[in-house]
Design a protein that fits this description.
Strand content: 15-25%
Shape: elongated
Radius of gyration: 26 Å
Number of helices: 13
Helix content: 25-40%
Oligomer: single chain
């Protein structure tokens, strides 16, 4: 079942979502408006699976386009919900914005519960609830999202109002594709173009997306999940701000993804920040595809850009030029990302790997070190997603970093694994001893 959490800015919606889910997933901050896109978080209560939909603060009187986009996102969540929570800051009292939201919710297709948040400090505050009856949405539920007071009763009531449970879904093995990049390179625009709809808020203001947003999609008969993320910057530049916590979620999105589309702004060129994000994707274990966005504005020297990426990014990701605004080459991005997801999850035959190792050593023998030379005996793939290989050697102390990189790149070339992070473990050969 889906539960939409809506309300005026700074009413404590994200704090309530975190409390109900028992996690710290939704971005919370003392600055109003920290949440903008809608974000879904899974939880469970009394055996029922619940999807909490956190939304941005709704201010129907705000005239700017970003506020209107937040309102649209909240309305989408309301339309999709089985139960709606209207969160009100009871300590601040009923404001005109709360009344406007209540008026909008009276026409909602699902039951609405008024949640009087910030009711901490013990008894004697019942008078704070009195004016909330005027919203015309029934008896308010007093809670304190910060301290957890009343949240159990609220969850009980949500379960009572919910429709009968559906059959449990099978294990989710859909490829997960994250869109990563610096702020304002067009990540949300790319997602909307791929979906053909305004699923996330797009703005010329850098840093509009602040949560990692999961979106289900079927592409040519194959189901997958696209993850739009906040722009990634150096943490030292955003320490102490709401963007810092949003960036943590973007980095976590990479760690739970199979493929990262590293989106770069072609009008600016490949920057050191782009390269750092590509390195982050590799260390997170997901395959990487580089999209040079805004190619319709300024065209880089593509060969030079590819050479720079090949030289600086160890996983050697493939590159596709594109334009989210004009729709250029978008039909190539997802097929390539799905191909990388499949290659990341593939397993190579041991016999083929050992023939490859013998040929690679014959072509470029490892250099001698202190008069001794590294010897390789056997290789096998021990894990996939990402691929991990154990290579049996005589002495791992003899390994030369450049030769190890040569072997890694030769492995990529042999099996078309450009863009896929590879892990090579050099394991010392164990000599058997007579009893």
């Amino acid at each position: 079942m889906k539960v939409a959490v809506v309300g005026y800015p700074n009413a404590g919606k994200s704090t309530l979502v975190n409390r109900l889910a028992g996690v710290r997933e939704a971005v919370t901050h003392e600055q109003p408006g920290a949440t903008r896109d809608r974000k879904e978080i899974e939880t469970e209560w009394n055996g029922r699976r619940i999807t909490l939909i956190d939304t941005g603060g709704v201010d129907l009187a705000a005239p700017d386009s970003l506020s209107r986009s937040v309102q649209d996102q909240a309305r989408e969540a309301i339309a999709d919900a089985d139960v709606i929570l209207h969160v009100v800051d009871a300590r601040a009292g009923l404001g005109p914005g709360d009344a406007e939201i209540a008026s909008m919710l009276r026409a909602a297709p699902a039951p609405v519960l008024v949640v009087a948040n910030k009711m901490d400090g013990g008894p004697g505050k019942e008078h704070l609830l009195a004016e909330l009856h005027s919203l015309g949405l029934g008896e308010p539920f007093p809670v304190s999202a910060t301290h957890g007071l009343g949240t159990g009763d609220l969850l009980d009531r949500i379960v009572e109002l919910a429709p009968p449970p559906e059959e449990d879904a099978e294990a989710d093995d859909r490829p997960r594709i994250a869109i990563l990049g610096r702020p304002n390179v067009g990540k949300s625009s790319l997602l909307n173009a791929l979906l053909g709809s305004q699923r996330t808020i797009v703005s010329a203001e850098a840093g509009t997306t602040r949560d990692a947003i999961d979106t289900e999609l079927t592409w040519e008969g194959r189901e997958l999940v696209l993850i739009d993320t906040a722009g990634i910057r150096r943490r030292s530049k955003i320490a102490g701000t709401v963007d810092y916590y949003a960036q943590l979620r973007a980095e976590r999105a990479a760690s739970r993804s199979d493929v990262a589309i590293l989106l770069c702004d072609a009008s600016v060129g490949i920057t050191s920040e782009d390269l750092r994000i590509g390195d982050l994707a590799m260390k997170s274990g997901c395959a990487t595809l580089v999209g040079l966005n805004k190619w319709d504005i300024v065209e880089l020297d593509l060969d030079d850009a590819k050479a720079r990426l090949r030289q600086r990014l160890r996983q050697r990701p493939p590159v596709i030029t594109c334009s989210a605004e004009q729709g250029r080459n978008l039909e190539k991005l997802l097929p390539k990302a799905l191909e990388l997801a499949d290659r990341r999850a593939s397993r190579l035959r041991t016999s083929e790997l050992n023939r490859f190792l013998a040929d690679a050593v014959a072509k470029n023998p490892p250099p001698a070190k202190r008069g001794r030379r590294l010897r390789t005996y056997y290789v096998a793939q021990v894990e996939e997603a990402p691929p991990r290989f154990a290579i049996q050697v005589n002495d791992r102390q003899l390994i030369n970093r450049d030769w190890a990189y040569y072997l890694e790149n030769a492995l990529r070339e042999a099996w078309g694994l450009d863009g896929v992070p590879l892990i090579l473990d050099f394991v010392p050969r164990q000599r058997s001893r007579a009893a």
